[in-house]
TrEMBL record:
Its cofactor is [2Fe-2S] cluster. The keyword Transmembrane helix applies. The main subunits of complex b-c1 are: cytochrome b, cytochrome c1 and the Rieske protein. Residues 83-148 form the Rieske domain. This is Ubiquinol-cytochrome c reductase, iron-sulfur subunit. It comes from Sulfurimonas denitrificans (strain ATCC 33889 / DSM 1251) (Thiomicrospira denitrificans (strain ATCC 33889 / DSM 1251)). It comes from the Bacteria. One of its GO terms (cellular component) is membrane. The keyword Glycosyltransferase does not apply. Keywords: 2Fe-2S, Disulfide bond, Iron, Iron-sulfur, Membrane, Metal-binding, Transmembrane, Transmembrane helix.
Length: 165
């Protein structure tokens, strides 16, 4: 009788632990809103890929050798370097009123159809009305991966120097 009671109590305890864990676990929507890890080794050069983080489009453009060679100092300062690769990574929303600009590979530019704003391949404004360059999401470099949503030293330096909001 004692053993049977112990077994039932044990099953009950496990069931309550499972129920409690379910309560502690973040909702799926909260999980999705957290961190996104990108494997930076898979991106092709010169091609814009749009990822998603916290419901926002994230532009990822691995720069070609020609792009890297012609960069100005301000463009270099916006580079996210993972291993030997240089990337433009930005929140893909126009800093004017939040439309999603389209990338035009032949011009290496982004055009925002809403009010005609333009950005270059480094994310800088080349035609107003956008008031500033694309914002860069918080990121942390971990080997060949990039964790969006975490603040690493490279992102902190960009934020402190006013490269991104
Ligand atoms: S929202 Fe892009 S130019 Fe106005």
């Amino acid at each position: 009788m004692g053993k049977a009671f112990g077994a039932v109590a044990g099953v009950g305890a496990v069931a309550s632990l499972v129920a409690m864990k379910k309560t502690w676990d973040p909702l799926p929507s909260v999980k999705a809103a957290g961190f996104t890890t990108l494997d930076m080794s898979i991106y092709p050069e010169g091609q814009l890929i749009t990822e998603k983080w916290r419901g926002k489009p994230i532009f990822v453009l691995k720069k070609t050798a020609a792009m890297i060679a012609k960069q100005t100092e301000s463009q270099k300062a916006r580079d996210i370097v993972v291993g030997d690769s240089h990337f433009m990574i930005a929140i893909g929303l126009c800093t004017h009123l939040g439309c999603i600009p389209a990338y035009i590979p032949a011009e290496e530019s982004f055009l925002c159809a809403c009010h005609g704003g333009m950005f270059n391949w480094a994310g800088e404004v080349t035609k107003v009305p956008p008031p500033r360059a694309f914002d860069i999401p918080p990121f942390k470099i971990e080997g060949t991966s990039l964790v969006l949503g975490e603040v690493g030293p490279e992102y902190k330096a960009m934020k402190d120097s006013g490269i991104t909001l």
